[in-house]
């Protein structure tokens, strides 16, 4: 048995991987969760015991093979266990977005015919109870957090812990059954069912088999040399395929530790405390962190500000060369050698700083002797006195000093000190943001993927990382570009089918297994890296036939910290216009510094000086878009700043925070009309949905601004009006 | 009021017990000013009892009488079937009465966690010398036990993310919540809230209402609250006492009080014709 396990045979399901991990890493931590202010941890052996108890508990309430068990809640070990326990019973776990409103949940629960629902807390239970009488399939509700649950009708409801206790009590009764069901699992049985975020239309249930998940986890773990010693922070929505791959697939394959934060609000503190070695975040997290850093640096004193500026400028050019940690292919361990090396580097950093100061002091004294009057000018005019080091060595020393004074403390504050591999995906990331993190010596890379591929389609290998490509095909993935520029892939991770939706399955996946991504892209000559331009169906034409790629322009806009979201319109129109969402953090801080008083988001968004600032950004984007003759038609002629943030609760965005272009266009049709008919302000009323599902409305008068466009001879904004 | 037997269930399934505190003919005078004149009412185990009234009606004075800070000029306070003698406020606190204040009375420079820990003071047994001994005298162990209780409350009130933040840096609504947490840390049997929702925005108010109901539901804490927001009072409380110029002008369930002519007059004013 042990040999077979070592050879990787029989590892055809998550429960089998769990058994291997118990055997190999039994005493090492598998899960941690911060609760009551302390990190509580479970070893692989303990987790296994809990999961088995839960699985047997599921049997006691009548879970059958092929049942769907919906899981709604924040990232907690118990919810991950519930997924594995479901698999042990031969059932299919279906994680759902916990911030979805009851209506959205009803659709998914009805579609998959879930018989059991695991809820995180009272809030989720309330939603399920609200829709329960409409959905016949739901038989039993389980919940994790007991708070506020006492008064509910418990005839078809249980605490997860009680179910576990029942499972433990019924140990002798269920043991054989569980073993039998685990033994039935193979590569072709369903591992998990995940619902797409539904950028267009209703969400679809993507069925992923054990082959998809385990093969993908294996390939990607080998690609980045992930091993048992990694630490990850599981904070992304459980319903998202990325979280499933990282926190279940790869964690089970490599046996590393999954850490769950205390609550969504403490995520940043928990990140610091854990110091993950492997980290995944969508670009907005990195953007948010960078914005925070910049805002706080504004408040710092002159010395700190100066140091920060000097060393960050230095890192911009040299960070990539001197900062990137050597690629470790083995498990990271704080060996004595590593500690000595770290101490040596630290001392070298301080030593060089002192050396530089002393050297400059001596030189200043010497210059003063010769030029008692214009000392400063002469001091500045000459290079270093002891130019004994060659430039690269000097740079190396400077970087070490920066590491001690700026980069190290900064990484520590961000919780990224121990990062070995970090990934960003989901959206394009701004080159400045990307370079900022890489220049600090954080190995941030991009990957491109989607639910249907079990995440990985392309990723960037170490040493070939750039902000404008998404990398080379992941191991085992084949890629081709269709006639219309659309990217197709085929891989072991390719999904089995859309649940109960053969039409969609057929239209997405052809008989040979090629799947259309829906994104247009091309391979870069020379490097072979894939570059993504835009959603294939969003790429359109302007009225005069020029190319219209809204995402391309929106991304350029969103790279400004002041702009949170942008939506560009122009398909089949004579020119492009845009909606802008300001970032309340960044713009609010700017307003504070410039003595601009505002009472609400709406008021700030409508402020003339905010408009001026955004106009500048838009014009800069226009200038850079104009550089590309193919896309020069995408320059923005007119824009307005929206009076509300685009929100998933209002259906304007998906739960993964991607803009639903057509819904926005439909909802704000009056505003778009105003953008094109030359008015300079418009009154509008917008319906908003609060978190608890109630409706309200916002009334506002929005002004519309013109922006300068570049290099266009055919049409100018004045002529258009 | 000795009988603890005539309890009943509320419509939403909470159990209300017998009378836990009775105030009999309370009169409070400051020199020539009569703040409270001859007021009697009772508080039942597990209920949310509201005291309302226009400004200067004597609500806060009433609360201070309950908490033992003021000694009534006339009248008696009966607590758990026995007449409460005149005693120091800290003795009253030890008997299980905790309160929050109208204007926040937290230690600004201390962290949220430390502030809530001060709520455990009445429960701490180790003295000064034992504290100095720390590990050897078991003070460290005692501290851990108290910390565990406090962490439960932090978890309950969902303030994990500000655990280590100095109170002075928090917004008003959160300070109020921290104050509630500190009062809860004393594990009171009667919780006195002096205008817990004053000056809050709608969202903060809703949160606070939720927490007051949850506290009552989860710990079965008897709650006495003073509040101006009529909507809040009517939704939250089981029984309401209405005061005006130191007199009691109404007492009963919210619906009854709402239709009481005296109460309407006191709040809306009477036409002088």
TrEMBL record, chain B:
Keyword ATP-binding found? yes
GO terms assigned for molecular function: ATP binding; ATP hydrolysis activity
* Residue ranges constituting the ABC transporter domain according to the UniProt record: 21-270
Q: Which SMART domains match?
A: AAA
The family database entries (InterPro entries) matched by this protein are listed as: AAA+_ATPase, ABC_AA/LPS_Transport, ABC_transporter-like_ATP-bd, BCA_ABC_TP_C, P-loop_NTPase
Q: Which keywords annotate this record?
A: ATP-binding, Nucleotide-binding, Transport
Q: Which GO terms describe its cellular component?
A: plasma membrane
Mitochondrion: present as a keyword of the record?
Answer: no
Q: Superkingdom, according to UniProt?
A: Bacteria
* Record protein name field: ABC transporter ATP-binding protein
Q: Name one Pfam family in it.
A: BCA_ABC_TP_C
């Amino acid at each position: 048995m042990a040999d077979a396990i070592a050879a990787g045979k029989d590892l055809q399901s998550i429960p089998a991987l769990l058994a291997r991990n118990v055997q190999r890493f039994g005493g090492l931590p598998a899960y941690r969760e911060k609760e009551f202010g302390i990190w509580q941890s479970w070893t692989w052996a303990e987790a296994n015991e809990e999961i088995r108890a839960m699985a047997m508990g599921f049997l006691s309430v009548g879970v059958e093979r092929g049942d769907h068990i919906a899981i709604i809640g924040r990232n907690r070990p118990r919810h991950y266990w519930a997924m594995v326990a479901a698999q042990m019973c031969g059932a299919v776990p279906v994680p759902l977005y916990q911030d979805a409103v009851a209506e959205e949940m009803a659709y998914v629960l009805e579609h998959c015919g879930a018989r059991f629902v695991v809820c995180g807390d009272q809030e989720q239970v309330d939603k399920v109870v609200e829709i329960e009488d409409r959905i016949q399939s739901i038989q039993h509700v389980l919940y994790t957090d007991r708070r506020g649950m006492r008064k509910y009708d418990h005839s078809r409801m249980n605490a997860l812990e009680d179910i576990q206790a029942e499972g433990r009590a019924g140990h002798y009764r269920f043991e054989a059954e569980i073993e039998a069901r685990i033994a039935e699992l193979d590569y072709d049985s369903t591992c998990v069912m995940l619902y797409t975020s539904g950028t267009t239309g209703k969400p679809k249930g993507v069925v992923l088999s054990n082959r998809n998940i385990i093969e993908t986890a294996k390939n990607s773990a080998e690609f980045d040399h992930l091993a048992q010693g990694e630490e990850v922070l599981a904070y992304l929505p459980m319903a998202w395929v990325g979280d499933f791959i990282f926190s279940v697939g790869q964690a089970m394959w490599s046996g590393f530790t999954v850490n769950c934060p205390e609550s969504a609000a403490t995520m940043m503190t928990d990140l610091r405390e854990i110091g993950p070695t492997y980290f995944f975040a969508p670009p907005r997290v990195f953007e948010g962190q960078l914005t925070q850093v910049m805002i706080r640096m504004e408040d710092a004193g002159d010395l700190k500000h100066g140091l920060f500026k000097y060393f960050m400028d230095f890192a911009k050019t040299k960070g990539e060369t001197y900062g990137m940690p050597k690629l470790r292919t083995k498990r990271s361990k704080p060996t004595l050698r590593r500690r000595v090396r770290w101490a040596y580097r630290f001392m070298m950093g301080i030593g060089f700083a002192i050396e530089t100061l002393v050297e400059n002091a001596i030189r200043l004294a010497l210059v003063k002797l010769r030029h008692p009057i214009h000392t400063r000018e002469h001091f500045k005019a000459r290079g270093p006195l002891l130019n004994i080091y060659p430039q690269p060595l000097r740079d190396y020393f400077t970087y070490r000093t920066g590491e001690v004074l700026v980069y190290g403390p900064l990484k520590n504050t961000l919780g990224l000190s121990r990062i070995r591999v970090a990934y960003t995906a989901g959206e394009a990331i701004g080159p400045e943001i990307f370079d900022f993190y890489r220049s600090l010596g954080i190995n941030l890379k991009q990957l491109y993927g989607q639910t249907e591929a079990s995440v990985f389609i392309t990723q960037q290998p170490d040493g070939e990382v750039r902000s404008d490509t998404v990398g080379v095909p992941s191991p085992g993935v084949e890629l081709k570009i269709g006639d219309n520029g659309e990217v197709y892939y085929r891989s072991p991770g390719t999904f089995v089918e859309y649940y109960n939706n053969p039409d969609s399955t057929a239209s997405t996946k052809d008989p040979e297994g090629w799947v259309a991504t829906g994104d247009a892209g091309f391979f870069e000559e020379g490097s072979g890296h894939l570059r993504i331009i835009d959603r294939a169906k969003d790429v359109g034409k302007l009225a005069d036939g020029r190319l219209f790629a809204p995402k391309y322009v929106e991304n350029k806009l969103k790279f400004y910290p002041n702009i949170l979201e942008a939506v560009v319109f122009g398909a089949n129109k004579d020119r492009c216009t845009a909606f802008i969402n300001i970032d309340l953090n960044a713009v609010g801080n700017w307003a504070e510094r410039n003595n601009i008083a505002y009472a609400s988001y709406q008021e700030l968004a409508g402020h003339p000086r905010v408009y001026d600032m955004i106009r500048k950004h838009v014009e800069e984007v226009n200038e850079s878009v104009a550089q590309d003759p193919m896309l020069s038609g995408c320059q923005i002629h007119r824009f307005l700043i929206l009076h509300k943030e685009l929100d998933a609760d209002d259906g304007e965005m998906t739960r993964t925070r991607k803009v639903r272009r057509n819904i926005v266009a439909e909802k704000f049709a009056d505003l778009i009309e105003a953008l094109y008919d030359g008015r300079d302000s418009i009154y509008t009323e917008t319906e908003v949905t609060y978190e608890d599902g109630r409706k309200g409305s916002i009334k506002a008068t929005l002004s519309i601004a013109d922006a300068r466009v570049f290099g266009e001879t055919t049409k100018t904004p004045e002529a258009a009006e | 009021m000795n009988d603890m037997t005539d309890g009943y269930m509320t419509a939403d399934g909470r159990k209300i017990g017998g009378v836990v505190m009775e105030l009999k003919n309370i009169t409070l005078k400051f020199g020539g000013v009569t703040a409270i004149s001859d007021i009697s009412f009772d508080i039942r185990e597990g209920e949310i009892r509201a005291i309302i009234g226009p400004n200067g009606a004597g609500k806060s004075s009433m609360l201070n009488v309950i908490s033992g800070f003021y000694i009534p000029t006339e009248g008696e306070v009966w607590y758990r079937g026995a007449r409460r003698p005149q005693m120091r406020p800290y003795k009253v606190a030890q008997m299980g009465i905790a309160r929050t204040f109208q204007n926040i009375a937290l230690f600004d420079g201390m962290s949220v966690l430390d502030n809530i820990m001060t709520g455990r003071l009445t429960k701490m047994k180790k003295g000064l010398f034992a504290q100095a001994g720390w590990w050897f005298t078991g003070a460290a162990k005692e501290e851990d036990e108290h910390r565990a209780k406090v962490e439960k409350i932090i978890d309950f009130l969902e303030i994990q993310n500000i655990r280590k933040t100095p109170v002075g840096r928090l917004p008003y609504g959160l300070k109020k919540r921290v104050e509630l947490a500190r009062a809860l840390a004393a594990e009171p049997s009667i919780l006195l809230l002096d205008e817990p929702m004053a000056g809050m925005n709608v969202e903060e108010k809703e949160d606070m209402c939720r927490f007051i109901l949850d506290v009552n539901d989860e710990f079965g804490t008897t709650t006495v609250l003073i509040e101006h927001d009529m909507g809040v009072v009517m939704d939250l409380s089981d029984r309401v006492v209405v005061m005006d110029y130191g007199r009691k002008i109404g007492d009963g369930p919210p619906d009854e009080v709402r239709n009481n002519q005296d109460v309407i007059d006191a709040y809306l004013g009477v036409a002088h014709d």
